[in-house]
Amino acid sequence: MNYDPLYYPYPSRRMTMYARNGMVATSQPLAAQAGLDILRRGGNAIDAAIAVATCLTVVEPTSNGIGGDAFALIWTQGKLHGLNSSGPAPHKLSYKTLLAKGLTEIPKYGWFPVTVPGAPAAWAELSSRFGRLPLTEVMQPAINYAQEGYPVSPILGKHWDLAFNNYTKNLSGEQFKHWFSTFAPQGRAPKIGEVWRSPAHARTLQSIAESKAKSFYLGDLAEKIDSFARQYDGYLRKEDLAAFQPEWVDPIQVNYKGYQVWEIPPNGHGLVALMALNILNGFDLKEKESVETYHLAIEALKLAFADGKKYISDPSSMRVKVKDLLSPAYAEERRRLIGHKALQPEPGQPAQGGTVYLATADQEGNMVSYIQSNYMGFGSGLVVPDTGIGLHNRGHNFTLDPTHANVLEPGKRPYHTIIPGFLTKDGAAVGPFGVMGGFMQPQGHVQVLMNTIDFQLNPQAALDAPRWQWLADKTVEVEHLIPEHIAEALARRGHHIVRALGSSGFGRGQIIWQNLEGVLAGGSEPRTDGAVVAW
Asked: Which of 82, 292, 323, 493 could form a disulfide with 249 if both were Cys (CB 3.0 to 4.6 A apart)?
């Protein structure tokens, strides 16, 4: 790709980083540096990814934790591997249970939305299959930061304070006291520049490292989770933890204008990004800052999301095949619906047949696209006593409608929003990319890839560019740097345009691309505290 290195529509003052020996890109500089240290000590990109992921549970707890889920795409020895480490609903929990309690939807907080955490199993599985260094060595930086503490960075501090205020208003009851004692030990969120530490978190990470996550699923930590759930009438049991295994999956892909774009298959919604790109394949997008480009991309994503929200669920419950949703014929059918005016998105009928993201690369050609989350910031608001384990609330994405493919059932995985991405061309790796942020994620993937492939922006410029997100119906939220004449023209086409006050809702991405000479080019999100580090 021929990049214009001076094109920076977003005033981040960051430049694309270039290197040959190794690179790490993520949302926290301390975590990025930990991954780079592992590379310099002889670890590979997989080891570095684990180091970064475990560090992020400490240095960015507002977005992820030990009690969350994880997905990864791993490029090694010329092949792409997919890992789905998202956990299912407890076997004691079903939609019937909650309907009987008078609920009409699954709450955000407390025990109802808690599913089996998959992140610790992901670290152990990646280390066992592809890692080079012992897990204890790879996780040591995270353990050190938890034990010794670190100063809170600016954007992290802002979101920590927002989460504290939210939980103060919305969490009531004895079961939530451990969140406040762990993450607000002074009765408030830690201030920017203030040192926060969690010795309990350090002990838990040490146990996971030494046992290769067995303590979390079969040992002492599993017993503590089980005991905490029983104490407050929760549903998660040690039997649920013991039964969990990460799943190696075949990544799914579409060809977008000569590049292969790869995502994890459902229950994740990377499929939405691929469906949107498939629709956009039929348009010649000549100019980035034109109302036509914005309009076509918005309409494509609306149609893709309409299908995704209807059909995506645990693979065992999906009522249509992924290959049918990604077929060229179905993309053409959906494409024909796009006209000059904004449409009200409806699902089609194909022919039947708070997240953190990181990217790593090493000098041997290994590359990792990795994402993990507790969902909605800190998650459920439940912290297992004396462990630092904040349990996620991923089950909030289930529905209680028994006719829907994504209905809550025992042992079933929910529709999942976190998605790692990977790009190849002609069988060679271009590299990992991702944009975290709930339902913004496939929208971020599409916009970053359009910036890269259609408009030839370098990695940093592709991330810096102003973003938009479709919210519902015809409503589109746009970042403040999107030109006013574009917003006004979209409104004339029938889009309901909402100007965002800030940039926190538009996702946070990282990119590492590799050229044919093996040179790595990395960019890091200007909307967070992120960094690209290399050697």
From this structure: 82
The torsion angles phi and psi of 423, rounded to 5 degrees, stand at -125, 135
What residues are labeled active site?
A: 355
* Beta-bridge partners for 255: 260
Give the integer Cα–Cα distance in Å for 326 and 332: 10
CA angle 522, 527, 528 (to 5 degrees): 80
pLDDT tens digits, residue range 436-488? 887 899 999 999 999 999 999 999 999 999 999 999 999 999 998 899 999 99
The reply to whether the predicted model has a pTM over 0.85 is yes
Least Cα distance to 127 among 202, 70, 190, 62 occurs for 70
Tokens 């060229």 belong to residue: 328
Task: Quote the CA–CA distance of 326 and 53 in Å, as a whole number.
Answer: 31
Tokens of 85: 């480490």
The tokens for 78 are: 């010329």
Strand bridging mode 259-263 / 421-425: antiparallel
Work out the angle between the directed axes of helices 270-280 and 291-311 (0-180°, nearest 10).
Answer: 140
Instruction: Please tell me the distance from the alpha carbon of residue 522 to that of residue 114, in angstroms, as a whole number.
Output: 35
Q: What separation in angstroms does the CA of 201 have from each of 142, 146, 310, 395?
A: 9, 6, 38, 24
Cα–Cα dist 396/406, whole Å: 11
Q: Which of 345, 343, 305, 352 shows the shortest CA–CA distance to 324? A: 352
Burial class from Cβ neighbours inside 10 Å (0-12, 13-18, 19+) for residue 97 reads middle
Give the dihedral sign, CA 45/49/55/60. positive
What span, in angstroms and rounded, lies between the C-alpha atoms of 184 and 20?
42
Chain mean position to CA 408: 22
Residue that is written with structure tokens 């199993």 in the block = 121
DSSP conformation class of 416? B
**From CA 279, how far away is CA 283, in angstroms rounded?**
8
464/461 Cα distance (integer angstroms) = 5
Alpha helices of 380-531 — where are they, by DSSP H? 441-449, 459-464, 484-492
Q: Cβ distance 354 to 63 under 8 Å?
A: yes
Give per-residue pLDDT as tens, 173-231.
Answer: 999 999 999 999 999 999 999 999 999 999 999 999 999 999 999 999 999 999 999 99
Which tokens is 312 given?
Answer: 């995506």
Give yes or no for a contact between 451 and 461, defined as CB atoms under 8 angstroms apart: yes
Report DSSP letters for 226-286, one per residue. Answer: HHHHHHTT----HHHHHH---EEE--EEEEETTEEEEEPPTTBSHHHHHHHHHHHTTS---
Per-residue confidence at 347, pLDDT binned at 50, 70, 90? confident
